[in-house]
Amino acid sequence: MSKQISAELQDALDRAADGGRIEYEEALELYRHAPLHSLGTAADAARRKRYSGVYGENGEIATYIIERNINYTNACVTACKFCAFYAAPKSDKVWSRPLEDILRRCAETVALGGTQIMFQGGHHPDYGVEYYEENFRAIKAEFPQLVIHSLGASEVQHMAKVSGVTIEEAITRLKESGLDSFAGAGAELLPARPRTAIAPLKESGERWLEIMETAHGLGLESTSTMLMGTGETNAERIEHLRMIRDVQDRTGGFRAFIPYTYQPENNHLKGRTQATMFEYLRLIAVARLYLHNVAHIQGSWLTVGKEAGQLSLHYGADDLGSVMLEENVVSSAGAKHRSNRMELIHLIRAAGRVPAQRSTTYNLITVHDDPANDPVDDHVMSHIASTAIEGGTAHPELKLVDVR
Ligand code: SF4
């Protein structure tokens, strides 16, 4: 192993690679000082140890999911500085999707073999719990096979306020109306300084975690996310992981951790800072090593590119996210990568892993262990809608894009 790190740090690396627990200071030191290759080797070992005999004999399977993000409105009172999607509620750029439009998108998702939808939108000033209940009940009535993996603590806080109910009541009613799990959106950066800098009107990071903890206690699991690259420090990145790990110690309700990178176009931050691919890979690796209590680490291709996505599978990630049949939020901020199911399968296989389609709960649906049996349906592609919604975006300079 490398001679460039201290014996103490090597010990932390070895302990984490073996599935053991490391502390915040060790994780930060590893993030800052461990050679990239050593980090990747240790994170890959930790992944293999966890998944050998579970995802293939030697943990060789890497997963993906087919899902659709459905954006129900761009109206938002929260005005996050990194966001290129929202419009002020009184703006003439505001739109909301009618229920029949949402149901049509669900039907297309089912037709293309999608198993999950992510209901995603702004904090509309009038949308309380009732709005989500109506939509989720209608979706489940027509498409009981679709998993609704959506929303996060920020939306819960907002809708509870609009409806004048407690967080517990809001979560319970969402669950009863069909929400299967929370997507964990809105985590952004949890530590106070960077969160206030980019999302001053959002609830605090502590409050975000408190609401997710309440959801876990009420039987709704979630994923967790992190937005990298808006000017946060190394220490703040690892602090974000620590805050998630502490809650996970108590609840076990975070199924996955999903970091993604800030996109620089059409938002108030104007791309003054951005995370590099190396920072992203280091974060993926340290997340695998430090978040020993979170089962799944998701690599991304949407914001960091396909090659970085492939590399993430060698830095601790066990999942490459989704064929996003529709995505409008980070695309509006400049994420230009597109893919499809056949390409995702190829990317995973070319990275030396066995691709498999998974469910929301990470059960394997189809293992693509024989290329001769690969699917050939080229309609299962990302972004079948648009990078900007026709006739109604906060950013008219964005044009409708159809990649078919
Ligand atoms: S990130 Fe979400 S909460 Fe923030 S402005 Fe955009 S839509 Fe609103």
Automatic annotation (TrEMBL):
Q: In which pathway does it act?
A: Quinol/quinone metabolism; menaquinone biosynthesis
Which residues does [4Fe-4S] cluster bind?
A: C76, C80, C83
Q: Which Pfam families match?
A: CofH_C, Radical_SAM
Question: Keywords, A to Z?
Answer: 4Fe-4S, Iron, Iron-sulfur, Menaquinone biosynthesis, Metal-binding, Oxidoreductase, S-adenosyl-L-methionine
For activity, the cofactor(s) needed are: [4Fe-4S] cluster
Q: Where does S-adenosyl-L-methionine bind?
A: F82, E188
Origin: domain of life: Bacteria
User: Which positions fall inside the Radical SAM core domain?
Assistant: 62-293
Enzyme Commission no: 1.21.98.1
Q: One GO BP annotation here?
A: menaquinone biosynthetic process
Binding of (3R)-3-methyl-D-ornithine, residues? S300, S322
Q: Which reaction does it catalyse?
A: dehypoxanthine futalosine + S-adenosyl-L-methionine = cyclic dehypoxanthinylfutalosinate + 5'-deoxyadenosine + L-methionine + H(+)
| Matches recorded under PROSITE patterns | RADICAL_SAM
Manner of cofactor binding, per the entry note: Binds 1 [4Fe-4S] cluster. The cluster is coordinated with 3 cysteines and an exchangeable S-adenosyl-L-methionine.
What InterPro entries would the database entry show?
Aldolase_TIM, CofH/MnqC-like_C, Cyclic_DHFL_synthase_mqnC, F420, FO_synthase_su2, rSAM, rSAM_sf
Instruction: Kindly list the GO molecular function terms attached to this UniProt entry.
Output: 4 iron, 4 sulfur cluster binding; 7,8-didemethyl-8-hydroxy-5-deazariboflavin synthase activity; iron ion binding; oxidoreductase activity, acting on X-H and Y-H to form an X-Y bond; transferase activity, transferring alkyl or aryl (other than methyl) groups
PANTHER family linked to this entry: FO SYNTHASE (COFH) (PTHR43076), LIPOYL SYNTHASE 2 (PTHR43076:SF1)
| UniProt function note | Radical SAM enzyme that catalyzes the cyclization of dehypoxanthine futalosine (DHFL) into cyclic dehypoxanthine futalosine (CDHFL), a step in the biosynthesis of menaquinone (MK, vitamin K2).
Tell me which family the UniProt entry assigns to this protein.
Answer: Belongs to the radical SAM superfamily. MqnC family.
What name appears for this protein in its UniProt entry?
Answer: Cyclic dehypoxanthine futalosine synthase
